[in-house]
Design brief:
CATH superfamily of the largest domain: Glycosidases
Oligomer: single chain
CATH topology of the largest domain: TIM Barrel
Shape: globular
Length: 1106
């Protein structure tokens, strides 16, 4: 074959081999060696931001060497910037590409994997994306004509952007009889609050927003309209500036399951008011509520509320309760484009049609009569009659006709957070052709440069979260829709613009199919397209598909299944982890992918340090994450400017000039060991939730009903994985790689697609146990039509039984059964499946867990998620095996001090867990493992105090950073509380020295040196012997080998963060500052943070020596 094809074939074959090797490795048994010296690919990766300053070879080398020393395994070159640094190299310029080649060579020298973001900036696009290849939206205009004659007119072109518009269809419908001849008059009078002119609010063309401040004493704002005579209205449309996150974004953090929970630090804003009607202007009745509009990274802020035909002379907006947001700047209400209409519209059509992505109930559109809606059986397709200039000639039948001219235009979404020269349109997220153009113009260019470097290799392409706004069309959408849904899209197209076509049910089911098609195309054409391109070139795809901020009505599980490594995201404001990480883990489990990654520690500031980071990492691990990719390391071109280059939006501490960077290897090693162990074997989850076929499909706490049971883990799927990946073996629902579930829970409501219903029946007949709280009444898809609905109901009758259901029941069909009216925990208990993990009644968020199984080992990850040490009596669903404790912070393997088998066939282990500590409890053979020491039964604070080391302490600071070269502390005290400004504002390392005489009462016992409290980490030497670095509580080291009878010399090197020095420098002129940074996020009035060795420092008696 031609050489170019051979190269591509070889690259694709290499990629396939690598992926298969990873799948095979995932099933391999863990060994102590794998725990102590994990593979390089288990090490954390980091996004390496270029563009905030000049990029130099010297800085590249220093950056990469620092990352290797700390224990990182990979870097992702990512041009994300928040400034326009004049000295920064232009993206893709010859000079910039030379730096890329050098970076790739250095990564090869240092053993770091070199990866690349999919495009310059955020998310995927650039100047090479033309309007044709940009994200698209369906638009349209309506024209009403009288028939019974030849109609010759020019149809107005729908609004367009970027001078690009293409027609899709021209359709004529008989104007609904209820609207024939009805023209809604302009209100004769409008009354507004005193001092406020809201005239422009009703100007749909203008779109100017009017600002309303929250009224005093929560009094409502009343906007009254007098039409002069009775009118009939059916819908209300309005535009707002979003002042809260959309539900699809604000359901991110796992917690106790409740109907009204929407996420840590996030909440649902109440409706902003009501529309009311009156016949006399005195007595008012509510017509509908006005829900708040959620923010979704999009300029589209319009929302339509539909209601039954309401006739009255007076209508008014009763506005209230909008000033309840956590951000004060959003307390004002910005209102625009208010439109009252007699037209029957689909309720919340903007989200149902994919113009925005949010959860919308399908049954809120009124049951309009046929005389109020468009009749799809009488549509006339006039597309072929439209001239290029928009002229139309048509012999219209008698009657009044509404003509729709429909087309598509770019949304105008552009890349952001990149260099100015690389800015451009976002590529089409439903198009494989657009994905190829994006790949070739950025990844392809860089790939060719790297391939020219001996020994260098590009390993992967990374995709950040797709926060680019919505789209609901692409050039071949109509053809893709018909192929996937089984019927032509044409006659129902006006429903995508909000018109009710046929009936409420027809329109909602059609729009379900639209959303489903958008999701399928995003998964198959966009993410799947990038994955295919990566494989063609020997690369793998790591993607937040589509990411935490869902902008399209995507199927997050299906999309992540079109990657090689699905990726979630967690922020340093989300202490219990994020549902996005659970989605990434579920997708990895369902699609047989060994690694689930997370964008880690996003939103960090200068005060962040390893002890603060640990519980966030543990939460991600417990949710199923086994690779960390840190956000982010900003390139540091200089050695003498500290803290150095950062980003104006975020102060990013993860770089070589951070005070604690060179002392952080122990923390990163902890993450590496944990990730490595959590890649072994297969995950253990008892419950598989099925969310159905509707989109957006993501885990949302208020939609997961019935709630997942405590003590059991679960995964979540949609139709794609259920149908393509599940079967039954020995009564369990199994996946092709061997993972299995005890129970399938149907959580998608009362409708199942026909394909899912057929597969469900096959699973039950083969032996699956299903919890179906609601008996299906039909399909959500219009494509399944009446016959499909009937078959879904027949299957439901077979599985649930015909006729009304009892409140609680179980029905056997074949070898399996369907249950209802019970909780998942009750069904599992009835099956004889006890809790997999039980922490003795503690809150499930107090003690976190994850479970994996190999051929001969049960591996449990356990984390104390609270800042207090505790004793936990943990019960594991393991019988007849000996537990060991694998400690990721130290690499030590011990035996628990106390454990026993339980009467119900499980194993109980006593776990003394320090604050924010984690441990692996591993059940299995001990062959090849050195005899393990018994783990201490006591917590450090419970051990007897042998001696307390009091002052004075000799302390030396670095004078270059403002501290005294030598000073004495009579007693330990925080630096920020001292009178000396050089110490109070000091940032960096200081060394404490003390001589002491040790008592002789420790014979035969181990001795711990407990430093008490430390801010933020410490390295300890005793009598010249290095005892290591402690970075979290308890700040204690084993001093047994170094402690000597009589005189001892102690040296404690303590490091704090940059915060206090940055606060001080914020109040100084530039020439007096000790620090240099591109952005100081602090003010001189900010509070200083505790720093230093805080103590008390004690010698404590440990266990007997071995």
């Amino acid at each position: 074959m031609p050489r170019s094809r051979l190269v591509r074939f070889s690259a694709a074959l290499l990629c396939l081999i690598l992926i298969n090797f990873r799948l095979a490795s995932a099933a391999a048994d863990p060994t102590p060696a794998a725990f102590l010296t994990p593979a390089a690919d288990a090490r954390p990766g980091i996004w390496w931001f270029w563009g905030e300053s000049v990029t130099t070879d010297h800085g590249i080398t220093r950056d990469l060497e620092a990352l290797q020393r700390a224990g990182f395994g990979s870097v992702v070159l990512y041009e994300q910037v928040f400034s326009d640094a004049p000295d920064a190299l232009k993206s893709l310029s010859p000079e910039w590409l030379a730096r890329v080649r050098f970076a790739a060579a250095e990564c090869a020298r240092l053993g770091l994997a070199f990866e690349l973001n999919v495009g310059p900036g955020f998310v995927a696009g650039g100047p090479w994306i033309t309007p044709e290849l940009g994200m698209q939206r369906l638009v349209g205009t309506e024209t009403t004509v009288e028939g019974g004659r030849t109609v010759a007119l020019t149809l107005p072109q729908p609004a367009s952007k970027l001078d690009y518009y293409r027609d899709v269809a021209v359709l004529a419908y008989p104007t609904p009889a209820a609207l024939a001849g009805e023209v809604l008059p302009v209100p004769q009078r409008a009354s507004f609050p005193a001092g406020v002119d809201l005239t422009t609010v009703f100007d749909a063309a203008n779109g100017a927003r009017v600002r309303l401040a929250p009224p005093a004493n929560h009094a409502p704002v009343l906007i009254q309209l007098d039409y002069g005579a009775a009118v009939t209205l059916r819908s209300l449309t309005y535009s707002l500036r979003p002042n809260a996150k959309a539900l699809v974004i604000a359901t991110q953090v796992p917690t106790s399951w409740a109907d009204d929970f929407y996420g840590e630090n996030m909440r649902l804003n109440p409706p902003i008011g009501e529309l009311e009607a009156s016949t006399d202007g005195a007595s008012w009745q509510r017509v509908c509520q006005l829900p708040a509009i959620g923010y979704q990274h999009d300029s589209w802020t319009q929302q339509t509320v539909a209601f039954p035909a309401t006739t009255a002379r007076y209508f008014r907006l009763n506005l209230h309760d909008w000033g309840r947001n956590e951000r004060a700047k959003d307390d004002d209400l910005l209102l625009a484009r208010v439109s009252l209409s007699s037209v029957a519209r689909v309720d919340h059509w903007e989200s149902k049609s994919g113009n925005v992505a949010d959860f919308a109930a399908a049954d809120r559109t009124p049951d309009y009569a046929p005389a109020e809606t468009l009749d799809p059986t009488r549509v006339v397709d006039l597309t072929s009659r439209l001239a290029p200039d928009g002229k139309l000639s048509w012999d219209a039948p008698p009657g009044r006709w509404t003509i729709f001219r429909l087309g598509h235009t770019p949304t105008g979404a552009k890349t952001k957070h990149g260099r100015p020269e690389s800015a451009g349109l976002e590529c089409d997220k439903l198009s494989a052709a657009a994905a190829r153009v994006q790949f070739e113009h950025y990844v392809g260019v860089i790939l060719r440069e790297i391939q020219a470097v001996p020994g260098a290799r590009l390993a992967s392409v990374t995709m950040d979260s797709n926060e680019h706004g919505a789209q609901n069309w692409t050039a071949d959408f109509a053809a893709q829709f018909e192929r996937r849904r089984g019927y032509p899209i044409t006659r129902y197209l006006p429903a995508m613009l909000g018109r009710v076509v046929g009936s409420r049910a027809e329109s909602d089911r059609f729009l379900h199919d639209v959303r489903r098609t958008i999701a399928d195309l995003m998964s198959d054409e966009y993410f799947g397209g990038f994955q295919r391109l990566c494989h063609e070139h020997g690369l793998t795809l790591i993607a937040q598909a589509p990411g935490i901020a869902t902008c399209l009505p995507s199927d997050n599980f299906q999309a992540k299944g079109r990657t090689d490594t699905p990726m979630g995201e967690f922020w340093m404001t989300q202490s219990d982890g994020t549902i996005d990480c659970k989605e990434a883990a579920s997708a990895a489990h369902l699609y047989g992918l060994p690694v689930a990654a997370a964008e880690a520690f996003t939103g960090s500031r200068a005060e962040v340090h390893p002890a603060m980071m640990k519980p966030f990492a543990d939460a991600a691990l417990a949710l199923g994450i086994n690779r960390f990719v840190v956000l982010a390391y900003v390139h540091q071109p200089w050695d003498d400017r500290k803290p150095g280059v950062t980003e104006p939006r975020f102060y990013l501490p993860y770089q070589r000039h951070n005070t604690w960077w060179e002392d952080s290897a122990g923390f990163w090693a902890t993450l590496t060991r944990s990730a490595s162990v959590l890649r072994q074997g297969l995950p253990v989850s008892d419950v598989l939730y099925h969310l159905g076929s509707d989109t957006p499909a993501k885990i949302a706490t208020w939609r997961m009903r019935p709630a997942p049971p405590d003590g059991y883990d679960y995964d979540v799927c949609t139709d794609d994985a259920l149908i393509r990946r599940t079967s039954v073996r020995d009564g369990r629902i199994v996946l092709p790689d061997g993972m299995s579930y005890t129970l399938l829970v149907l959580a998608g409501g009362d409708r199942l697609s026909l394909a899912a219903a057929r597969h469900l029946k096959a699973l039950v007949v083969a032996g699956a146990v299903v919890l179906g709280p609601t008996k299906p009444v039909g399909s959500p898809s219009l494509g399944d039509a009446a016959a499909g609905d009937a078959e879904v109901r027949r299957i439901a009758d077979e599985l649930w039984g015909a006729g009304p259901l009892a409140t609680r029941g179980v029905r056997q069909t074949g070898a399996g059964r369907v249950c209802w009216g019970q909780s998942p925990a009750a069904v599992l208990a009835a099956l004889g499946v006890p809790r997999d993990f039980d922490a003795g009644g503690t809150d499930r968020l107090d003690v976190l867990h994850a479970h994996r199984r190999t051929t001969d080992r049960e591996i449990y990850f356990i984390a104390n998620h609270r800042a207090q040490p505790r004793h936990v009596t943990a019960t594991f669903r393991v019988r007849g095996r000996t537990p060991q404790l694998w400690h990721p912070e130290t690499g030590a393997i011990t035996s628990p001090a106390a454990w026993r088998p339980t009467a119900d066939g499980r194993t109980e282990v006593n776990l003394p867990l320090e604050a924010h500590a984690s441990v692996f409890v591993v059940f299995g053979p001990t062959t090849g493992i050195a005899p393990a020491a018994v783990a201490p039964a006591q917590l450090v604070a419970e051990r007897p105090v042998l001696q307390t080391l009091t002052g004075p302490w000799q302390v030396s600071f670095a004078s270059a950073w403002g501290g005294p070269a030598e000073t004495s502390f009579a007693e330990l005290a925080p630096w920020n509380a001292t009178a000396d400004p050089g110490i109070r504002h000091y940032s960096g390392a200081a060394v404490y020295r003390k001589s002491f005489d040790a008592p002789a009462t420790a014979a035969g016992r181990r001795v711990l040196l407990d430093l008490g409290d430390v801010a933020v980490l410490a390295s300890v030497k005793l009598n010249g012997r290095d005892l290591g670095t402690v970075w979290k509580a308890p700040f204690a080291v084993d001093a047994t080998a170094a402690l000597q009878s009589g005189r001892n010399e102690l040296e404690v090197r303590v490091v704090n963060t940059w915060v206090n020095r940055l606060i001080a420098d914020a109040g100084l002129p530039a020439n007096q500052r000790l620090t240099w940074t591109t952005d100081n996020p602090y003010r001189p009035t900010d509070s200083l943070v505790p720093s230093g060795l805080l103590g008390p420092v004690r010698l404590r008696l440990g266990d007997k020596r071995d």
